[in-house]
Design brief:
Number of helices: 17
Radius of gyration: 24 Å
Pfam families: HpaB (PF03241), HpaB_N (PF11794)
Strand content: 5-15%
Bound molecules: flavin-adenine dinucleotide
Largest sheet: 6 strands, mixed
CATH class of one domain: Mainly Alpha
Strand order of the largest sheet: 2-1-10-11-7-6
CATH architecture of one domain: Up-down Bundle
Protein name: Putative 4-hydroxyphenylacetate 3-hydroxylase
InterPro entries: Acyl-CoA_Oxase/DH_mid-dom_sf (IPR046373), AcylCo_DH-like_C (IPR036250), AcylCoA_DH/oxidase_NM_dom_sf (IPR009100), HpaB/PvcC/4-BUDH (IPR004925), HpaB/PvcC/4-BUDH_C (IPR024719), HpaB/PvcC/4-BUDH_N (IPR024674)
Shape: globular
Helix content: 40-55%
Distance between the termini: 71 Å
CATH superfamily of one domain: Butyryl-CoA Dehydrogenase, subunit A, domain 3
Keywords: FAD, Flavoprotein, Oxidoreductase
GO molecular function, one term: oxidoreductase activity, acting on the CH-CH group of donors
């Protein structure tokens, strides 16, 4: 077993990977300035082993390895995983870090698969633990016309598919999108994105490949990049991710790394097995964001001198109720965790989806409350260069003081701007709506996971008691 440091992790990214950024090939992602912030941020997934070893490191007898990759076998394991994900997100100011999603995929593979695919997944899992591997997960296909199945698309490559096979390998073609961490991970796990029928067999594929595999190209989004001033953007100047369009141009995958090979009946179960873990990850890494929203609202109200006003107290109470309800559902998901296939424990699907739905449904209203309390300076206030100039700063200190000194107030306003109207706020707003499953996907899972026996029995009981 190996535990790598964040420096080891960064050094491991120096290879021949084909990464494109703003129309140009990036020679070396490890030393590319625009990616530095994201790689440092993702390095927190390694730093936490030294900072919180009791939570982030396990040793089952073969030497220490990262607790992100500990397969949950009990409810307590699920609860501890929730704490770990929350802790690393707290280090990252509420931004997901790196190893969470990859481990969700590993657990999904270990839970849903059978036969040779399961054996390959187990072997790959051991490799990841032994080498402290950084994983990205490419599940979402580009999908073309959303109303059509993979085999019905005008261009068959709009869902990733198998285009060739020999005794030792399969060859795949197509593209995945929104792939977080792909440019700064060691390996990419590919999962199917939906349930499939027999006609979609070529598209029912899952495997893992190193990021520098021949034929794999990553086109990284420029969103959230640049070098924002830390005074103006206290969160986004330090924490961000890399996302890519991930193109497989006839990529050869050794069969030992193939988990699903033309088995459409397993595509849906595998996609869902991942999602059960992934939404649990989502709600736990979002808890520090909720603390940030509540804390910033409380502090801002005090700094503006409105903390005791009736309407403000109501808004703060609603915000607290929203945040603590998400936390309650996240804890419930661990408390009610259930035994899944292949002896892998899973968080309660009903509670997980309610937590994620409640978070996403209330997020935009919550950020609106912060904008309300902070006032218009979020978009008209001074910048870092103004604050750094002694002459301008004296003016700002005089005129922006309120119930708190100007510096404290301006820093709070900038924090609120960053997490609501700024790029990080915009990113989180889209993330809340789409990532880790859409609101519709969560509603579907809530309806599916809800056991209606008790509710129907209550109606039967009341109606039978009412008979005479
Ligand atoms: C920041 C971020 C990070 C992400 N990271 C990852 C990652 O690491 N790996 C990964 O695999 N994915 C990742 N995702 C992808 C995420 O899971 C998807 O965004 C999500 O599944 C929605 O897919 P889409 O973006 O293609 O939107 P679409 O599917 O196009 O959805 C747009 C709208 O169309 C509706 N719609 C879609 N299909 C249908 C249909 N058949 N019938 C009716 N309505 C439909 C949706 O409900 C929605 O309202 C990430 C997304 C974001 C925003």
């Amino acid at each position: 077993m190996t535990l790598r440091t964040s420096a080891d992790y960064r050094a491991g990214l120096r290879d021949e990977r084909r990464v494109f950024y703003q129309g140009k090939r990036v020679d070396n992602v490890a030393s590319f300035g625009e990616f530095d912030c994201a790689i440092t941020h993702s390095g927190l997934a390694f730093d936490i082993a030294a900072e919180l070893p009791e939570l982030a490191v396990v040793d089952d007898g073969d030497g220490p390895y990262t607790a992100f990759y500990r397969v949950p076998r009990t409810g307590e394991d699920i609860a501890n995983r929730g704490k770990l994900i929350e802790a690393v997100s707290r280090m990252g100011a509420g931004t997901i870090v790196l190893k969470e999603v990859g481990s969700d995929a590993l657990f999904g593979l270990l839970r849903a698969l059978t036969g040779e695919g399961l054996e390959n997944a187990r072997e790959f899992y051991r490799y990841c633990c032994e080498n402290d591997v950084a994983l990205a997960v490419a599940q979402t296909d580009v999908k073309g016309d959303r109303s059509l199945a993979p085999h019905q698309q005008a261009d068959p490559d709009l869902y990733l598919r198998i285009v060739g096979e020999d005794a030792d390998s399969i060859t795949v073609r197509g593209a995945k999108v929104h792939t977080s961490f792909s440019a700064n991970a060691d390996e990419i796990i590919v999962l199917p994105t939906r349930a499939m029928g027999p006609a979609d067999a070529d598209w029912a594929v899952s495997f893992a490949v190193p990021v520098d595999t021949e034929g794999l190209s990553l086109y990284v989004s420029p969103y959230l990049h640049g070098e924002p001033d830390p005074f103006e953007h206290p969160v986004s100047s330090k924490h961000k991710l890399l996302e890519s369009l991930t193109v497989f141009d006839d990529v050869r995958v050794p069969k030992s790394r193939v988990f699903l090979n033309r088995q459409p009946e397993l595509a849906g179960p595998l996609a869902l097995a991942f999602v059960d873990y992934h939404r649990f990850t989502a709600v736990n890494y979002k808890l520090p964001i909720l603390d940030l929203l509540v804390g910033a609202a409380l502090e801002m109200a005090d700094a503006n001198g409105i903390g005791r006003t009736g309407h403000v107290k109501t808004k703060l109470t609603e915000l607290i109720t929203y945040a603590e309800t998400v936390r309650g559902f996240a804890e419930l998901a661990a408390l009610r965790s259930v035994s899944g296939g292949n002896d892998v424990q899973l968080p309660d699907p009903l509670a997980v989806n309610m937590a994620k739905y409640h978070f996403a449904h209330g997020f935009h209203a919550a950020t609106a409350t912060l904008i309300d309390l902070a006032g218009g300076l979020i978009v008209t206030g001074p910048g870092g260069a103004d604050w750094a100039d002694p002459g301008t700063r004296a003016v700002l200190e005089k005129y922006f003081a309120a119930a708190a000194p100007a510096e404290q107030r301006l820093r709070l306003i900038n924090l609120i701007g960053d997490i609501t109207t700024g790029q990080w706020g915009g990113y989180q707003s889209v993330l809340a709506t789409h990532a880790e499953g859409s609101l519709e996907a969560e509603k579907m899972m809530i309806a599916r996971a809800f056991d209606d026996t008790r509710a129907r029995a209550m109606v039967t009981q009341v109606l039978s008691e009412a008979r005479f």
